[in-house]
Each structure stands twice: as structure tokens, then as C-alpha cells.
Here is the input.
Amino acid sequence: MGSLTIKQAIHQMRKGLLSVEELCKKCQDILKKTRVLNMYVNETDPEQLSKNLQASSQAYAQEAAKCLEGIPVSFKDAFCTSDMPTTCGSKMLLNYTPPYDATMVTRTQENGAIVIGKTNMDEFAMGSGSLDGCHGPVMNPWNFAVLPAADRHVQGANNVSEDTLSVEPGDWFISGGSSGGSAAAVASGSCLASFGSDTGGSTRLPASFCGVVGLKPTYGLLSRHGLIPLVNSMDAPGIITKTVEDCSIVLNAVAGHDVMDSTTVVESYKPFEIQEDIDLSKLHIGIPKEYHGPGLSGEVLRLWQDTADNLEKAGARVTQVSMPHTQLCITCYHVLCCCEVASNMARYDGIEFGLREGSEESTEELYAASRHQGFNDVVRSRILAGNFFLLKRNYEKFFLKAQRVRRLISNDFKNVFRSGVDVLLTPISLTDAPRYRWFANQDNHTRCEEQDVLSTPANMAGVPAISIPLSLSSQGLPLSLQLIGPHFSESSLLTVAGWLEREAQFPYLNLDALGLNEEALRR
Amino acid sequence: MQHLSQKCLGVCWTFARLRAVRQLSSKVPPKPTWEKVDFDALPKVPEVDLALVEQLERISLVEFNNETGLEWLRSSVKSANRLHVVDTEGVEPLDNVLEDRELWLCEDQVTEGNCTEQVLLNALKTEEQYFVAPPGNVPLKKRDKQHLKLGLQEDEDSS
Here is the structure.
């Protein structure tokens, strides 16, 4: 049952074959059995949960069920929730419970969804591994499928401090980040959908490693109100589901203008359904040659080639295109990210909310002490670098230069779509999920610069992009590809994604049979 | 676990099926296409000296932890220098991808309020209906930078 899709679950609940309580219990059973993965940082209060379940049950009984009625969902801990702390993976916000809900939270709940908890992440969403949050690293649920049972319980991420992990390095596979908790949560079956955020690939990358669908919608389609900002001009709420169709169901439920976010576009959103019979001969797929960057594994390359060939064989027009500024994306992203981070993080001073620790001699001393305690090394170094790029003497040389390069990158997309390409097919991650031991032997910055090269371009241009799992690697881990379309082309993007999904018949992880009890996992 | 390995078998199968259909000349480039960056041709990374460290720490209100922090700043700037390989003469900076659209602005009307308690709820120190901050307008005390000594360029020992 944990392997149900949203579509199936809604269908069964409408027919009375499944109750809202049963579905939630099933998800929670998986959640309990997989605590070792460290996917959740907070769970909804049981009393509140049962109230919500009751309301959903009633809605079904009265045939008034909404589009996500009774569906267990989770939110990355970067989304504000008024009934649960919101930490953003940082010591800075461990004591913070927002006085309001993010619009994404409000809209999913208005549509009947049951929020079961908040998911783990990199601190302030800065990372590509989900290893750098104050709640500890997230393990990939596929560890259950590919690691021998004997190895599995040795290096559980839960209740193991970072020190213990480095002394006793884990050989487990990471979830990817920064929305690793969300991707892992959906892959494990502990919820049917999860919201991540995507500033430079943070939804698509973990989705790729965890074998689930991850959508970064067009900038301006989903409200950012209540999503703790990283880079305001690139941040987008991301939708993680098991299937493309589920993704469209969630998107339909939450998309559209929000008066609380002036960067959501005012045009009314038209909900859509995934069309199954599509005429591929009318489709022009672009293969941007610059996406074959350094470090792309042979397996990902083959999947990319095979998928392009399959599309061509099925009638689509497939051509190679050039997007010459792709190689500069990651550098451009790095500069803009640091600059916006330096500005965004200025709000954390310990006075109105968040950690307040250290000397009360003066405001400056208190700010400095609290911020030093509250932020990890990654956040601090990005703030310092950002302020360096923003110094008067560097502003034109780095910040404005990066913004100019950003326009060139954005123009690459405009040009390629104007030339008649409907959708771009690219890899999203360089390899399948890396092992913790390998990933953690380089610092966060090095890994981001290496791992995010294929995901950041879409954020630069604000275009929608989706990561879809298509096959398994030789070691049995998910391999995914990315589709990128023009602004607000979600409907056709998801339709093509759906076609690929049906062709690939990806074997989703199914942990229903996970018979291991938690004690054994914890040793 | 058994069903999982069965699944894996199924997948290898799918994979094999995908592989089998490869007969076209793929549009995917077989070799990496990235050009090598010649860092020597790029501007020099500025020196990170005590004055710069103190300035950045003062405006950032966070400190460099150690020499690795300084090294990171240097590599970060080195990496950013790559932007200079491309000519951006006459290219306008892009602030936001929605620049061509008219965005929604709200009326200048009060729509919420009377939430003092809620707003103060997350503050650790309050008095009456105020946030409490220590005395302001006091410059940050000079920090000992001994721990960064080895990483700083153009230091006292060299003078």
C-alpha cells in the first residue's frame, strides 16, 4: 500500500476500498521503520493529525473530497508551518515556530492533504548532499535495496553525530540535497508527495538520486510566501512525487497567483491532465551538447543516448543544439547565490527570533556572537564571500558581471526555444547516488560546484525543469534524466515526462516488505 | 528483500531493452564538450590580508573560523574570475526573469495587524511590547586574529 500513487489512493478512497486512516497509518509505519534514514525532523502532533484525518474521512463520507483529500504529504523544513517548528536545518532557528503558514502549506491543506511532518535538509538549503544540516545527514532509502542487511545498520545516520560518522565513515548512499529529506520521504513511501525547494537543483538532484519525480516549476508559478529565502530571484518551491501524473495533481492544487508573493504571475493558472496519447512527430527535442560536462558517468551518458534515440525512433524530431554559456552557469550561480545569501542572512540577529547567545554588551557583539553560533561553516563562508563580491570595488567586477552573464545564459534558453525546440533532454546528476564516504571527503562548496552543473541553468533562466527516474545503475540505484521547457510550459513538459515514464517502467522502491525492526537498525 | 532483487532483474531487462534499440547516430555528444579554463589568463586573485578580513567580518558579523575559511574565500574568488572569459560588453544585468511582465502590486491598504503578541512570540527578550536589544552604536571589539596568522598574506612578520 505504501507503494500507492496519489491517483490510486484517491481512487481507492473514493470507492471506499481504503480509508484515510489506513493510508496514513501505512505511511507512518514506514516512517517508523525507516527512522534510521533521518528523513524527518518534526512530525505533526498526533492529536492534530487525528483531527485532520477525521475531517478528511468525513469529506469522503459526504462525497465532498477535494483533489488531495487524505493524502499524506510532507514539507521541507524550509516552509513555514504555524503548528510546528521551522528550523531550515539550522541551529539559528531551532527555537523558531512561525506565526503563519507558507502558502504552499495552506493550499495543500485547503485541498485536503494531511501534513505528516517536516523533512530534513542542508542548512538554509545550502548543499547538494543533505549532509550539512544541524539535524544530521539523510540516508537514501535505496540503501535498503542495495546494501547487504549486515552493513545496513552499522552506520545509521540517526543519532550519530558527524564526528562518529567521520571516525567510522559510512559506506551508505546519500540522498542528495538540499531537499534530501523530501525526496527520501517520497521514495520510501512514508508520504505520497513532498515539497522541497529548488534554487540551484535542490529538488531535482535528490529526486534523481532517490528515484522519484522532482519538478522545479517556472519561476513565478508557485508562491514563495513562507518559504525561507536563499536566492530570491531563483528560489522555487519544488514538487516531489512518485509519478509524473501525481506531480501534475499536486501542481494543479497549488499553482497560481498569490497576493502574498508579488513575484507570482497574475495570469490565472489552467489545471491540466497528462495526455497519454501524444503525437511525438510534432515534438522537437533538443539535446544541448554542453550538458555533457566533466564527470558525467558512462551509465548516465548511455541512458541519455538511449532515451534520445528512443524518442527519435518513436517519431520525435531530435536535434543537437548548443547553449554556449552553460559552462559558466555554476560560477555565475555561485556569485549570485553568495551575494543574495549575504543580504538574506542579515535578518538573523537573535533579537526578533532565532538563536540569541553571547555577550549582551552591545548590539553588534550580540549579533556577531549569535550569528557565529547559529550558522555553520558553509553559511558563514557564503556570507563572507557574498560581502566580498558586493564591496564597492568588486560590485561591477563580480556582482554585475554575474548578472550580465546570467542574461546570456537566459538568452541561450530563449534562442533555443525560439528556434523551434519544444523541450530539452539532459542529464540531471552526473552519476547515481554517491556514497557518503566519497561525498564527504570534499567540502560542501566543491561538491556543489561539481554536482549542480546540470541543474543550475534552469534556475538562472527561471524555466521549468523536471527530473524523472528511468532506469537502475549497475549497482541497483536510480538513474534519472531532466527535461527543460520554456516558461510556463509545465503541461507539455509533464506530458513528455509522462511518455518517458511509461516507456521506462521504472521499478519504484517498495519498502512495504521491510521487516526489519528499528532496534536491529539502531544496533 | 527477495522481491527487490527480482525487481532489479526486471530493470536490467528494461535497460537491456533500451540498449537494444540503439541504432541511430545519437545526437548526444559522446565526449565531454567543456573547454578548459586558462586561469593564468584571468585577473589575479586579490590578496586576503588582515584589513580585508576585518572589513568582511565587520560587515558580515560572522568570523572566519580558521585558515581553511580564508583559503575558501580565495578559491571562491578564483572560481568567480572565470566569468571574465566571456565578453559582456553591452549586456544588461538580469535581476529577475520576470522583468518583462507587469507584476501585481497590492493596494496601499492595511490588510492585517493587531498581532503584537504573535510577532513577539519568537523573541527571547521582550519588555512590554518591545523587543529588547543591548546598547547600540558601539563598535565591534577588535578580535584576535592569531588563529588566521598562517593564512593571511602580507602579515606583520613579512614587514
In short: The first strand of chain B starts at residue 126 and ends at 127. Residues 35-85 of chain B form one domain. The longest helix of chain B spans residues 2-20.
